[in-house]
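Predict structure. Input: DUF559 domain-containing protein, 317 residues.
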Amino acid sequence: MGDERALRVLIGLQDGVIARTQVLECGFGSAYVRQQLRCRAWVAVYPGVYATHTGALSWHQRVWAAILDACPAAASHDSALSAAGVGREPRRDDPIHIAVEAGRKVTRRPGMIVHHRSLFNQDVLDHTTPPRVRLEEALIDVASETLNEMKTIATLSDAVGSRRTTPDRLLSAVVRRARLRHRMLIEGLLADLRDGACSALEHSYLTRVERPHGLPSPVRQAPTGAGRPGFRDLDYPDWGLVIELDGRAHHDNARDRDRDLERDLDAAVVLDRHTIRLGWGQAHVRSCSTAVKVGRYLSLLGWPDSPHPCTSPNCVV
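Output follows.
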């Protein structure tokens, strides 16, 4: 007689997906599996892997089916990040990335991308549901393999900014890899994140506006000091200037906008601080022009220097 409770618990943990081997381990025979399939209570996803319902599979069920099909395997790359709750919410039709041990041959299924890891046992958290590659390793995988520099920056800075990991832990993951694409970019970005640039937009301001044009270094993530507790992106206390960098992710509704305006008002009334707000256009697209304007504003407030041209032949400074 099979252990029905153990089977139900396992199906629940695996989002309604089960492997034939697991059914047998719970004490049920092949006849039980055939009966579930015959009465359409279960549907085969892959040979020996079943969904315990009819209808389309959710993203989480597709991940479980891929892992059970290639077992031992784990969610990898973007799939590992989504499984860990990092980044955007996955879509049902997103490709499923899984990792297996280097040297193994597994059947490649449509919509499934297989990655081979030489340190599979070290890199995988097999006690999570579903099993997944460790967060730092998955972040470095995604950041190093994208062809888009801004995605590399956003992937790492968003994870650090949300306090899911730290620059030092990510740097440790980088050091362990003998070969890594975009190593210089990733190491430089992580060093900047460790120094206080907490978002992709802040990194763009640092590397495209502030540093190449010789603007003074602000206090990054300075406590608000008045009104609602929080942090100001860039604070120049010697000249009474605050710069807030507004990415769309956290400033795209009326409530957030109202909160931002209240912070600016508190800074002006209580702390005698002037606040300017910059977005992607100023920090990334028109960075040289922004350096001129920020430098001029700082000069009006008492900064004794001026910005200098960057290495771009079209720099307007």
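The first strand starts at residue 17 and ends at 19.
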